[in-house]
Amino acid sequence: MYGTPAKTHLPELDKVKILLVDENASHLNFLVGCLRNNDRVLLAAASGEQALQLLRENPDIALVLLAAQMQGMDGYTTASKMRDMVTGTELPIIFMASGEDTDDQHIFKGYDSGAVDYLIQPININILMNKVAVFIRLYYQSYLLRETNQCLEQKISEHQQTAEELHGYREHLEAEVERRTLALQHANQNLQDEIEEHLETERALMEAEKRYRSIFENTLEGIFQTTPDGHYLNANPSLVNIYGYSCTLELMQSLNDIGLQLYIQEGRREEFLKIMDRQGYVADFESQVKRKDGKIIWISENARAVKGEDGNVLYFEGTVEDISERKKAEVELQQINEAYRRFVPHDFLRLLNKKSIVEVNLNDYVQREMSILFCDIRSFTMMSERMTPQQTFEFINSYLSVMGPVVRDHHGFIDKYIGDSIMALFDKTPDDAVQAAIVMVQALAPYNAYRGALAERHEPIKIGIGINTGLMMLGTIGEYHRMEGTVISDAVNVASRIEALTKTYGVPLLISETTFQKMHNPSQYAIRFIDRVKVKGKSTEVVIHEVFQADEPEVREGKLATRDEFEQACLLYHQGLFIEADEIFNACLAVNPQDSVAQVYKKRCMAMRGTVDHFL
Questions:
Q1: Mean pLDDT calculated for residue range 188-196
Q2: Which band of pLDDT confidence, cut at 50, 70 and 90, is reported for residue 484?
Q3: DSSP state, residue 357
Q4: How far apart are CA 378 and CA 421, in angstroms?
């Protein structure tokens, strides 16, 4: 421990007050930690105004450690005001300044404002403790000198008065001389105490250096000092062991260009130097390096630049930690997460506001509006009956590898595969779901061509897609040992029923009225109203529209040409005017004979007309 000067045994000096002024809380904590002592009272201020208030309340402050640069009232102004407050007494002020505040201009400014000394950031603990000890000793001596002088002045005045009145009191003068002699002896004793304290301080410094050397030699972290051009100045045994050398001397002689000999990544040392030049330190600087035996490991470095009085970098000092095992674990965790993402979509975690699958718990859910898409292969059961199990799996995976990316490309994600069926969610806009469905239908032509060109000459496939938009609950269901993510909502059931209706109307893509209404720009697509139906599980009718954007050009143009007439015929049909509706549907089929929906309505009209004729 750093000592303090022997006290004068005067009650006023039992505890010396030291004022610490810095707006940086970490600096104040550092100073308090260094200077804490039973013989001292540490007063801390976070601003110049607070420091002046503390000085008013404590006029017996012995020493001030003052930061030069602070917001508001800086250190120079604060020091000047302190001098004005303690006129007639000595108040030593030590400025704490950064490197840029120690040029001649700032130093003169500091001394003009009242500074007696400087401490340069970052503060050297030994220098700090020695300077504080010196000024405390000066404070004790100054206090004792003032007391002695006051006493001497008083005695001289008394002596003069006595001499004028009673010139014969020589015994009193001899007693005064004896008293002064004792005072000098006491002062000498104090000086001897100070010498002993100085020796104690030196012993404490030696003990601290011994402890530091023990830490340097025995810590598990590698400790180093290197020159800016890449030479090692010092290294502890842990660093030698991390890099695989036999001793410090071998490491220092072998590694004379860290950038070329140590780092695996080209330019890594240059990046280290750029960061060091920019901020004066590096933290958690992770790199791959090569050991002496050629083995590549991961390390993490923390270092700072040590500069001379001229501001130039003398060397770098810091620590190195071998993080190879941690990196290996991170890679394994990343691979596990990647594997989980193939089973649990990342967007599912995003919507649940989870960063990782390990954060997901049973009953986690979120409620929001989304569009849901169901896609199914027509007559898949019949097709699978003609395939072996292996062929069935190969076909499904081949098909899904075409359709899955289309969903992701349009900001959606596949919630689950149900055999050959796809259930996909789109949480941004219904337009994403509709556009994805159009591309999925368009992708069938090249996919069928590819399958037809195979040796087996597979028959072409058709798909049906239904889309609905509504409020859904997305979350986890199941039990503790087995759960899965899904969506639950009436809107999900409606989308499934709409997909099933594509078989009824012989079209590939149907959407609900809700999806149609919530699209940003439905006019850019080829869409027409086709029916108002009561689906299973719903008490109210559902309006459905056909998106025929992906139809064959001839069919699409025919539907566009007859769209108004077709929708008028649908209206007449639902009004019970079957004869009038039948005539318009016939006109639509005359223009576009391949209109499967018009064909369905024509059959319905014929059936309804027969019923009407029967009752007539």
A1: 82
A2: low
A3: G
A4: 10
